Records
---
Amino acid sequence: MQFMLLFSRQGKLRLQKWYVPLSDKEKKKITRELVQTVLARKPKMCSFLEWRDLKIVYKRYASLYFCCAIEDQDNELITLEIIHRYVELLDKYFGSVCELDIIFNFEKAYFILDEFLLGGEAQETSKKNVLKAIEQADLLQEVNYSLSLSLPHAVFMV
Amino acid sequence: MRELMVRAMYCEMLGYEADFVYIHAIKLAQQGTVLEKRVGISIFLKQNMYYLQDLQSTNLIEVCMALTVVSQIFPKDMIPAILPLVEEKLSHPKEIIRRKAVLALYKFYLIAPNQVQHIHGKFRKALCDKDPGVMMSSLHIYLQMIKENPASYKDLTGSFVTILRQVVGGKLPLDFNYHSVPAPWLQIQLLRILSLLGREDQSMSELMYDVLDESLRRAEMNHNITYAILYECVKAIYTIHPKAELLEKAARCIGNFVLSPKINLKYLGLKALTYVVQHDANLALQHQMTIIECLDHSDLIIKRETLELLFRITNAQNVTIIVEKMLGFLRLCNDDYTIIDLVGKVAELAEKYPFTIWFIQTMNVVFSLGGDLMQPDLPSNFLRLFADGSESEEQDRQLKLYAVDSYLAVLKGDCSHLPQRFLQVISWVLGEYSCLKEDVDQQEVIRLLKKLLEQRGVSSETRSWALSALTKLCKGPGYAELALELAESLSSSLDTVLRQQAHELCLLSQDSQLHARVLPHPAPSDNLEVDSSLSFLDGFVSDALAAGAAPYKPPHQRQEELSQQRALSLEPYGLSLPVTMSSCTLTDRQSPTFLSMSSDLSVLCVCSANTLMLEGVKRVWGKDGYIPQKEPSLTPAAVDEPSDVVQSPDQQGAAETSLPEPEPEPPQLDQEKQQLASSLFVGLGSQNSMSLLGKTEVAVPRFRRKARQHESASTSGTSESSSNSSHSSRSTTDSFLYGGLLEEEPATPIQNSYHTLNSTSENEGAATVSAKEDKQANSSQILGKSIVSQRNCSKSLPVAFPHSSDSMVLQLPSELQELPHSDVVSLTSDPHLSVSCCRVFREDALLLVLLLFNPTETALRDVAVELSCEEPLMLNTEEYGKLWLSISNDVKQNLKLLTGGGDPLRATLNALKDSLQLHIVDIIGSEGIVACHLLRGGPCLMHCRVHGASLAVWLRSPLPSLPDCLLYHCQRALQEH
């Protein structure tokens, strides 16, 4: 997979993940172009697109478009399933996910994505395992956070 | 701080630049708590840097995060630093760490394959990992490696098959199931690997048949993910060595895809079909109706894929309709990438069936639709096909007439919107073939082309095509006026190519003979040969040099000299122009004041500053080489872009007109100049010899190919002078030879050989140092366009060649008296013998006539004359080292090593020393250094090293051609041994 983009129906970019090195300028250009192309397509149309020498696989969930770029030889259907699994993961983590969840907790969305896809390849396909890893990380973070909060207090008290 | 970071991150996400926070993010990530680390890490994912610390951490999650970051886009040069740590993690007890480490390594492999080469063994271990997750991750690496080199992983086929069988059989933990399909990602990965391994390999394929069959059978549930697996299966089945039973099943599968109401599946079905029809075109027949339906589908992507499929099944019967469909799609399409692709495909199809009117029509549409986006070789391919024509003469004619007609019609309409490429093609065809059509008035064609030429919005390249078409058409006296008018209007054009062409047009229209010769009709279809060494200009150049012009030097050499000059800092006012050797040589002889004056002058003015009478010498060589003058067509085409012109198909039309068109004057002019030069320099020769020698040698690289020919053909004594004489004034050559003779003659050994004098002089054609000045040959070569000049230098002269004439009276033989010759000069005399010398200039050679006068009574039996120009150079090792570094012309070559007992190196060098008069400076171990120099010229240093059975020789000399020459003689000397 070359990159993954999430954008709203209004064309606002919500999340982007690039697995190939590109300059910011290129990224912006690609994003703009793709958002336009994908938004122009009708709902009944095919979820695959040929774009430059890449294949774009996209799917719409509620008001969000999930859009992946893969190489020509890659399997389009399995990419669709990757998108689907990611949505499932988000859904499970946030509990019936909506666009706002991703806007406000974008870092979590990124963490989940990183846990699921690594370097553009599916790393862990089990829902349970991904969420377990995320929860563990969250927990560690909480503990650390409360520690760091309480530490100055302690010093102050003394 | 953290808050700010989060905000910065948000800015970044929205696409604003937030580079300035990166450094703070790094700080935060390094010192902070986990939360801060996470924030810091996510902010500069693309800049990621120091995770060494985290990688070494004992905290599982910290390690996880570090690995996650590492497998993002990672800078190549950081890999070595981090690789050992990641490698270590491959044997971590936790599978999640191992998995991430493997994926990180996969990423490294993608970035820099050679850096992870040493851990291929560990990949195998990962493949056999007890955790399926780790094994799955390792498959990514294997897929990549097998893609690059399937042959070296064939032994793994068995294991992959076993794994797949286990997966399909549901042996994996339930965790891996996805919608109750066992590990689909893993299956697909394995299928892809297997198809790569089984391609064109029957034995491997046989291992797979069973498991593929099982996969097909198991994947029957009606869900996207099973379709994905099925699709991959089908692809695998058609990739590997075919098995009828499986193929049948796969075909049925494809049928299901294509017929599916789901559009995604339909698309995949078409894609699979496209892939499959290469092997079995009949499959497409079964789905004819579906394909037709898809062709009219509202979704462009489906249509596009269908066209792709049709493209694959094109044959002579259906090509017309398929191309029509494709063109129809092209008209609708507005995506550049698709247009380029489709245009290429249409053209490919059309070119399979040329020589029909349909072909022309199709190509016309292609050109007008594809426009300037298409691949640049398309138009030239078309023109080539068109020009080559078919077997049938009549059909050919018809076709060309049709094309001319259609293009005239196009031009008559509004052609402002047409793509430039199309206009170029039109111009070429009209220029070439419009004369085939009798009923069309040439004036009309010319008028249209002129209109095109004057039209606004036409690129200058197109203009030049149009103009060359006009040039072809404007033959005969009737068009002189028109040509003149055109030339006048364009002669002030800003585009130099157009101006040049206009000038050519003007000249050609006046001389119909020349026109016919330069632009023969029909245009020759075979490639024109271009002499990139510009040997046809040699004569011109040598005359110019003879007339005192400074020789050409390649820019790097000028740079070098310039820097040398700077180092000397002789000039008070730095000169930014590269100062040539000629002014350098002046420094040796002239006063400093004179130098500063002469170096301020540009290159050629040096000649006049030299106070030689050189009126009438033209400025021929400038800073960047030859300064074109008088013969615009001769020089720019040849000097500026000798290879471009013909090689780039785009300019073919232009090349035809801009190829050398000689003008009648140069040869005569040259001869006049030559005579002038030789008469001017006769007296000056000897005192000038040093500096001229230095200069002329520098010019060699440009004409190296030719100079080499002489060198290989002539002997040690003569080669130097011959390469000189081919492009320098004769006086130089002469004086140089003088020098050689003067010194060598007394030492001439009188040997006992059985040559009679007369016969030798006749046999050898006298001492021919072939100084060829073949102006006439040049011009004829240019006209004939066979420019690669072959000079017959096969005559090999012996090192010692006696020749003489009867010399009671010091007079030349009668057959030589007619030729221009110098005075007879006495070289040496003693009571027994006196030797005189005379130079005779023949057209193809410089004859050196030695006159021997024998006043005594005894009969002179045999005479051997040895001409030599080189002698040992006495140096010690230290001086040698210094000299070596100061010289830049390098030649390296391997020589044969003499193996006759003792130290082979010493034996070889001694042999060379004996035969070539070299000085062996030193022999250290397996290396030896040798030196020699020309009598009046520069030194040549030789560095030899024993290398196996051969001797690696490295020569350096300030004179570029000396090493080559010396090398040749070394080879000969060793062969004789």
Note: The radius of gyration of chain A is 18 Å.
---
Amino acid sequence: MKVINLFTSSILVTLFMLTLPIMMTNTSMYISKLYPRYVKTTISYAFMISLIPTMMFLHLGQDTMISNWHWITIQTMKLSLSFKFDYFSMIFVPVALFVTWSIMEFSIWYMHSDPYINRFFKYLLLFLITMMILVTANNMFQLFIGWEGVGIMSFLLIGWWYGRTDANTAALQAILYNRIGDVGFIMAMAWFLTNLNTWDLQQIFMTNHENLNIPLIGLLLAATGKSAQFGLHPWLPSAMEGPTPVSALLHSSTMVVAGVFLLIRFHPLMEHNKTLQTITLCLGAITTLFTAICALTQNDIKKIVAFSTSSQLGLMIVTIGINQPYLAFLHICTHAFFKAMLFMCSGSIIHSLNDEQDIRKMGGLFKALPFTTTSLIVGSLALTGMPFLTGFYSKDLIIETANTSYTNAWALLMTLVATSMTAAYSTRIMFFALLGQPRFSPIITINENDPHLINSIKRLLFGSIFAGFLISYNITPTTTPQMTMPHYLKMMALIVTILGFILALELNLMMQSLKFKYPSGLFKFSNMLGYFPTIIHRLMPKTNLLMGQKSASTLLDMTWMEKILPKSISHFQMKSSIAVSNQKGLIKLYFMSFMLTLTLSLLTLSFHG
Amino acid sequence: MSMVYINIFLAFILSFMGLLIYRSHLMSSLLCLEGMMLSLFVMMAVTILTNHLTLASMTPIILLVFAACEAALGLSLLVMISNTYGTDYVQNLNLLQC
């Protein structure tokens, strides 16, 4: 039984350790130059300590729940501070800490010339803490605290360079789209409060309700907002205005998976609801295809990787739609490794080329940045599901399961097309950024010789290659994967990926020496993100404002209250009085004649008999 | 007719003459208008009280109300003229330019 105590102690130590650098804000440590290194070391120690409870969990297979502090009891509902350490949180915590450790070390190199680097690290750490609160929450209130926390930190970090208008707009956009999702979350919370009288996950999963459509739609809306599914997706590519470490941490591995994580947490409710599963499946399929189409013609390297993230998120939602939450979770964990590494390699390229983000102005970096090139290629291969790299263990399983399950054929087709497009845009990145002759300016600022950069990418490189294997073979088996299927179904993912690679390579090589004519309609559709931001961000507010101006201001105020009676009466009177009167204004004469007439008439008529 | 009535009637006639014959300021005719209203009020009140016409006791008040309205109207006309010309001389209102 001592084993159990060590579990709770060590996990609480891990979580508490993360808050220590925040508590040092008012001391001299925060102002010194060692603060970033201090934060990085804290997170690496937290990672190593968190491995203890994870391995204990994998050995024993026992969920733990800690309920510390009773906060409030509102009539019949009790809210307390409670942590849930089950399969999902225990595997996610070390993965997230490992990735964050590497990103912190990368940030030391990337942001070293920033005067507010200490504040940057504090914000990143605050984000990590709120993400930990989110994944370890046992009741919906605590989850909501973490949910809002990651939203706020995302706002602060996207708008890090707040002097830039685009960054402010992007941060505001992120908040607005997340808010729309939060409405769904609150709807689910309200339903649980009124119908099940609780916000605790244990009690929610225990009660048997027939019609759970309303809270599940609310949760799906929340996931749509946070994980940038179709309809609430434009904030994710705009969020690339933030620094690259922010993109690597928030908008690839950690924050955007919060929506998927929420759906995974509530999977016992979704198991028996076929309607919601179909809706989830179709939403995920639309997202993954749409964002993959948009990624094909982008010219900014970070935007391509952002759309790649969005596409993989759509794939995770598809996995939830076919009722495989554990596979979706596995994909979350493996995706974190190679996506963070892809962002870090992009950051290395960007800094080396003196802040150049356009892939049309890169090229020929194959020999100049060998380590970055290697990790970029490995990351892209892992992303597309190259056999036995990390992505293979989750992505291939997902495609296989989708192929052999009784599901929506259209959604399946969309997912397969999106998979081949993944290969296509990965080829595009590699072709434009790495191969060929250099297209950047000849002043050489290329340098990847910094140990912080190399070590951080090296760690994630090992993760991208081995983590899939390590995680898959050490976790407790949950759902049984489909073992037998026809060979064409088994090879389906590989075939479409290779097809995507070959097509993209051929097209890129063929088009290299051709002149760029006017873009076709399809190109414009893809490049302008399907015209979605243009329409939604401009047309709808303009319609609302125009309607408001016309009905309230013009119609009511100006016309009905001013013009109809008061102004029209005065106008009419003045015009008619000018038209009718023909006097000359000789007032004294008129008065005199009046008096004279009166007197004369009095005198004359008084002598009447 | 008793002395009171002749007195008040004479006051009314005097104000009336003042209204019709004045030199330059429009304000003086407005003042005489007020004098007319005052004398009418007194005559009406004395008549009603002397002859105990109880049901007509309201009429002096009503007369006052209408007098106030008309005074306001007269003053607004004065203000309009004063806005245009700066003074209220009656010569200004002469549209003939000779």
Note: The first strand of chain A starts at residue 64 and ends at 74.
